[in-house]
Amino acid sequence: MLKGKILVVGGGIAGLTAADRLGRAGLEVVLVEKSSANGGRVAGLHRYYPRLCPPRCGLEILVNNISGLSNVDMRLQTELTGVQKNSPGIWTVTLRNTKQEADEYQLKVDGIILATGAQLYDASLIKEYGYGSLPAVITSMEFESLFRPDGPTGGRPVHPVTGKPLKRVAFIQCAGSRDKNHLPYCSGYCCAVTLKQIEYLHQSCGDIGTWVFYKDIRTPGSKEEYYRHVREEYRPVFIRGLPSSVEYEGGKLIVRAEDTLSGKKVKGDFDLVVLAAGMVPPVLPVIDGLEKDRYGFFPGHTPCDPTELRRSGIWAAGCAQQPMDVEDSVRSALSAVAQCLVKLHQQPSAYPEVNKKKCDHCGRCAKECPYGACILGPDGYPEVYPGDCRSCGICQGGCPLMCINLPGQGIKKIEDVVDRVLSGGVPQPSVLLFLCSNDAYPAWEKLTGQGGNIEGLEGVVPIPVPCIGSVNMSWINEALIGGLDGVMLAGCHPDQCHHGGGTSLAGTRLQNLRETLGRMRIEPERIYSTGITIDDTERLLGEIRRFGDLLVKMGPSPFK
Amino acid sequence: MNCNADITDLRETDILDGVTVRAAALCEQCGKCGAVCPALFKKPNPTSLIRLVQLGRVAEALQAPLLWSCIGCEQCNAVCPNKLDAVRVVRSLRRLSASEKDVCFPKYIMDFYLGGLL
Ligand code: SF4
Ligand code: SF4
Ligand code: SF4
Ligand code: SF4
Ligand code: SF4
Q1: Distance of alpha carbon B64 from its chain centroid, rounded?
Q2: Any A CB within 8 A of B62 CB
Q3: Does domain A350-407 have CATH number 3.30.70.20?
Q4: Chain A partners of B5 at a C-beta cutoff of 8 Å?
Q5: Pick among A167, A169, A262 to test the B interface (most B CBs inside 10 A)
Q6: pLDDT tens string A481-530
Q7: Which end of chain A has fewer CB atoms surrounding its CB within 10 Å, N or C?
Q8: Nearest CA of chain A to the CA of B25: how many Å?
Q9: Is residue B89 part of a domain?
Q10: Number of Cβ within a 10 Å radius of residue A353
Q11: pLDDT tens digits, A153-180
């Protein structure tokens, strides 16, 4: 049986799905939900698309399953207020009872799934649509409530103010989304939501007309078929153009727009205007080192591993990842669960060891580790939790005293090359070539065949490294002072680094090193770094040749 | 602001038959039929003609020269990604126009057909 305790934050569809599966896998689960009820936004929906089934069905199954699992502890009105890592592999989380302000306590867990969902964009910020000031301008979420027995109209889809039957309803897409004045991104779910709402309206109101103001209809995959079905079945009128204004005149909402398909300005009067509002990221306590995207979501390392965040042991699920619909939220929760189980199960890969005799507790390794796998323990020395470590070696690259190293890596290798150079065993120009084993090294192997080298440049000594950020500057220093003619680093492009910041860290460190070398009268041009992708073989060859030519022109190392 | 048109839809005018209206409703205005149609005297082409129908502007659609210049080649139907019957829209409008008192038969089309005879 698997062991481990996982905190799931958020009791919406993603959080419930995650808690259910982790619980069934035998883990201890604490599921916290800020509000007084589970279900999140899904609990407020009338129907799901495309099959128009009621959300309560799936929700009830989940909640029943969970209540039958003694290892899942569901805590409502409980909010996450803090996350810290004080010992390797263990998160200390602070939870607060939202009923009693003072009731705060801590738990230790092995992993955290952030399934906090997202918030709806505040539609009143889109001034021209009049939300909040005009009657009967509502959001798509409020539209759902018109169909719910506990909603403002008792479940009858009628005018929310007058109670009269609806005759003409307009939907305005991208309300807040895809707009640099509001949310620059596409919220992804709202096109299909409008189609679904058109379907409810026509099914329950009979004689009704629907209009959609849009700029693109985005219904990827099988949702395109749903879009076609709604067009053919209910014949909503699609006006390609977002309205310039919504006004209230004589009991009607007047919407004006330009139909860019016919090039004509159009004007229509409606009983109800529904804004397909976008989603904004969740509000969360600050978690040290957990990177968000520029909007505040946690999309992970896309596309290769969307579940991977820059803190091992934390996963995002559902709309915390990025705006998405229910289907994608469930899928995202299941992938977070899968990764969580893998992490608890897997054999740890190679991880660095610390030479405590040399370490002076500067803490740089812990600060620069992209996954939070390395932390300073109670004795002040760094400790690496094998299960969290991704063997990137970035800690080893940054240590000023070279006392944290992955197995088989370290200064020893460099010293060997220096010895060979000194004994005349390496032809000129002698170059130490560090290659990232993800991209540049495979490119090199394609170029030279295994163990081969480049004709005319036999003095190039390749050294594969897990990430270019794992190259310690002292190695380069040692090599150049030891008489090598040049050092070349071939890593990934900064925005493509598999470990996030490896390439840019190496860039900063190199800059500092060049300055130091300048003071020692070593030409900074003897160090060259470049970005290489796996299929860049020809360019790699060109870059090496150019660097070799430069070194020949510069003459042998002054230290030789 | 000046508006060229108020928004109605065909449910309100309801003068074309259901099959035609459903076909028009499926059109996404991709423009393929307009691009392929050889009968272009001037706009509206099949794409923009269908747009007029979608917007309920049937009166305008009835003025379209395409109603008479369409040669029935069916290339529009052949390329449509929604497999809709674009010629049917043209034909229904033509029938509707013919059943009205003032058939809108553009002079230059008359000239084209009768040119050789006169
Ligand atoms: S899903 Fe549709 S409505 Fe929503 S932001 Fe994207 S394009 Fe706009
Ligand atoms: S090897 Fe990478 S993941 Fe592992 S402790 Fe060092 S920096 Fe962190
Ligand atoms: S960077 Fe090196 S010296 Fe500094 S704490 Fe880590 S292992 Fe010790
Ligand atoms: S059938 Fe008529 S409308 Fe269609 S492409 Fe041919 S000429 Fe044009
Ligand atoms: S090809 Fe079909 S979908 Fe495209 S514009 Fe013509 S009728 Fe519409």
Answers
A1: 6
A2: no
A3: yes
A4: 264-267
A5: A262
A6: 989 999 999 999 998 898 988 999 999 999 999 988 888 888 999 999 99
A7: N
A8: 5
A9: yes
A10: 13
A11: 888 999 988 999 999 999 999 999 999 9
Q: Is the CB of A374 under 6 A from ligand 3?
A: no
Task: Give a yes or no: residue B56 inside a domain.
Answer: yes
Domains in chain B, number: 1
In-domain check, residue B2: no
The ligand 4 atom nearest the CA atom of B75? 5
CATH class of the region A121-279: alpha beta
Edge to edge, the sheet with strand A314-316 lists: A72-75, A28-32, A5-9, A111-114, A314-316
**pLDDT band of B8, cuts 50, 70, 90:** confident
Cα A318 from Cα A98, distance rounded (Å): 23
B6 with A266: Cβ contact below 8 A: yes
Superfamily assignment of A5-118+281-345 in CATH? Answer: FAD/NAD(P)-binding domain (3.50.50.60)
**Token pair 């069934």 is at which residue?**
A24
Each residue's pLDDT tens digit, A38-74:
999 999 999 999 999 999 889 999 999 999 999 999 9
pLDDT, tens only, A322-363: 999 999 999 999 999 999 999 998 888 899 999 999 999 999
Cα distances from A515 to residues A431, A510, A527, A531, B74, in angstroms, run 20, 9, 11, 21, 74
pLDDT of residue A209: 92
How close does chain A come to B13, measured CA to CA in Å? 12
Q: What's the rounded Cα separation, in Å, for the pair A434 and A30? A: 45
State whether B26 and A244 contact (CB < 8 Å): no
Domain of B43, in residue numbers: 13-114
Quick one: which ligand is closest to A380's CA?
3
Pairing of strands A90-97, A78-87: antiparallel
Nearest by CB to residue B7, choosing from A235, A237, A261, is A237
Q: Is A331 exposed, middle or buried (CB count within 10 Å of its CB: 0-12, 13-18, 19+)?
A: middle
Tell me, what's the pLDDT at A149?
Answer: 87
Q: What is the pLDDT of residues B39-65, one digit of tens each?
A: 866 778 999 999 999 988 888 898 888
Q: Is A171 on the interface with B (CB under 8 A)?
A: no
Q: Which one of A228, A236, A262 has the shortest CB-CB distance to B51?
A: A262
pLDDT for residue B116: 60
- pLDDT for the residue B1: 43
A130 class by beta-carbon count within 10 Å (0-12 exposed, 13-18 middle, 19+ buried): buried
